[in-house]
Amino acid sequence: MKKILISDKLAEAGINYLHDQSDIQLHIETGLNEEGLCNIIGDYDALLIRSDTKVTKKVLQAGKCLKLIGRAGIGVDNVDLAAATEQGIIVMNTPDANATTTAELAIAHMMSLSRRLPAADRSIRAGKWERSRLMGAEVAYKTLAIVGFGTIGRIVAQRGLGLKMRVIAHDPFVTPEIFEEFGVEPMELDELLRQADYLTLHCPLIEKTRNLIGSSQLTMMKKEAMLINCARGGLIDEGALYDALKNGQIAGAALDVYEHEPPANSPLLELENIVFTPHLGASTSEAQVAVSVEIARQAVTFLKTGEAVNALNLPRLSAEELKRAQEFMTLANILGKVLVNLAPKPLEKIEVALFGKAAEVEARPVSVSALIGVLSGQVSAPVNRVNAENIARRQGISLIESKTHETQDYLSLIKVIGHYADQSIALAGVLLGGRHPRLISIDQFDIEVVPVGTVLITRHDDKPGVISAISAVLGNADINISRMEVSTADNQNQAMAVISVSKPLTDDLLQQLCGIAAVHKATQINL
């Protein structure tokens, strides 16, 4: 008999599901503080929570039988994830249970903007009858542009197609086959912005997407275009949005999320052509039922079968297994990070091959670590060895692994090959002294690199003056070069340079490097 404690209010549907399980013993006690939770948690196999319960390290240490923390919802800020991992306790959430609700809010905002419903409501309440001033627009046959084609973006696309809209989307980490499956046209961001009648954001807030929509992007859009954000505050430069709305650069906007919540004193509140909601993406009765039922099902599945659906941390590993594989996992993770930054198009398949002593450890943790390197920072969910393969499948990426005890010049070597659009990129790495990662080749270029910090990789013509020109750009920007490796030329008389620099380059500096006549490409990678 497995014991589950529920310490926050969950919808009855989820509780009823647990009551129906003959081999589950359920106890509900809400409002517990840390001490109260510590006093009782030792008897339970699983703890199901929402956002009120704080699962601290002390609570986790008191959970002598605890195997699972289940969060009904997405955020796990109230759980000490590191401590849970250390204790070998799985933490899982329900990231897709409120996807439909959030997608429908985006569609509702689109309709609201199109028919000017908030303004019409205010007009009627003020005793007016302004039919001509409140002229709207149909959405049928207009272009719905989606940035971020994960679960929510795909639901929005389906709804848009049902409304007879043309749907286009941008997501650099989704393969063409996925777009084709949903009947959506993939497009580069700049062109997507130019064609959008309605632009809706459904991507995570990461370093690359912060202020994704700024003044230059808004300038590209049609004056009749509408902008919708039900994803994350910070995706839009709110100052630039204010200027664009006030100056008629775009026609309207609708926001459910903000850089600062609530958006008190925001100048956007002064404008008439914008609609606001207070972060209601998951706020429907159906969504609350969905997260309750989903976490209940996931908990039962884990306690009965050991399958950890939507797990956010690592399962328990023996100390010996972890110690033997750890350095190779670190190397594979680094190769994955380099690979995804060098790939010009979405990766469709990743091959991981272990040679020599590397083949003596379990291949799966190493290959999955390469996947984690590829996916981390590219998707909204935390990526780890538990969920990396599922996330990769959803992105249309397949994983192939192999190992052989034969050596290739080195006692232990890992190769990671990424395939995209009938092309590939091949990387190889080794451990010097069994513990110091080195990147030793990129495609046909043999080059030994210490993969730490900020690394700049260039493809350039092999002729005098190129390296000095690159160095001049960096020097003028007060960027120091700590290491540099330059390859020999290939059969096209091109070489590769890998340069470790003291600080990241701005986009303008990267453009300056690419402006050097002999430089064909410059890629910056933060390791």
Overview of this protein structure:
With 527 residues, this protein is an alpha/beta fold. Helix content is 34%, strand content 24%. It contains 17 helices and 22 strands. The chain has a seven-stranded parallel beta sheet with strand order 8-7-6-9-10-11-12, sandwiched between helices. β17 (436-442) and β18 form a beta hairpin. α5 (99-115) crosses α7 (151-162). The longest helix has 24 residues, at 319-342. The two termini are 46 Å apart.
List strands and helices in order, with pairings.
Elements: E1 2-6, H1 12-19, E2 24-28, H2 34-41, E3 46-49, H3 57-62, E4 68-71, H4 81-86, E5 90-92, H5 99-115, H6 117-125, E6 143-147, H7 151-162, E7 166-170, H8 176-181, E8 185-186, H9 189-195, E9 198-201, H10 215-220, E10 226-229, H11 238-246, E11 252-255, E12 274-276, H12 285-305, H13 319-342, E13 349-356, H14 363-375, H15 388-394, E14 398-404, E15 412-420, E16 423-432, E17 436-442, E18 445-449, E19 454-461, H16 466-476, E20 481-486, E21 494-501, H17 507-514, E22 519-526
Parallel strand pairs: 1-2, 1-3, 3-4, 4-5, 6-7, 6-9, 7-8, 9-10, 10-11, 11-12, 13-14
Antiparallel strand pairs: 13-15, 15-16, 16-17, 17-18, 19-21, 19-22, 20-21
Helix pairs in contact: 1-12, 5-7, 13-14, 14-15
